[in-house]
Design brief:
- By secondary structure, this protein is mainly α.
- It has one domain.
- It contains six helices and no strands.
- The longest helix is centred in the middle third of the chain and has 13 residues.
- The chain is elongated and about 75 Å long.
- It starts with a helix and ends with a helix.
């Protein structure tokens, strides 16, 4: 078996110096990635469920329907949603 390609790759990349990543940059990139995740978006929606009429927003499919679903907490009964008990 010819393993010459490994020797050629080693010779080609031997003169290159590996870059050590800056810990601050890595941390900032990880935080930015986490903030853009689906879980972060869901948490942001959950924090501010401020919709005047959540049921109407859900039924009409308005622009704030995600916040309305969060405000209703899985219930079509506004009284139960306000209590936080669900159905």
């Amino acid at each position: 078996m010819d393993l010459g390609f490994l020797r050629r790759a080693e010779q080609r990349f031997a003169s290159r110096i590996a870059v050590t990543p800056d810990p601050g940059v890595v941390t900032a990139l990880l935080q930015a990635q986490l903030a853009a995740s689906a879980a972060a978006h869901a948490e942001a929606l959950r924090e501010e469920p401020k919709v005047s009429d959540p049921i109407a927003e859900i039924v009409l499919g308005g622009s704030e329907w995600r916040r309305a679903v969060s405000a209703q907490r899985g219930s079509f009964n506004s009284g139960l949603a306000a209590e936080g008990d669900g159905n």
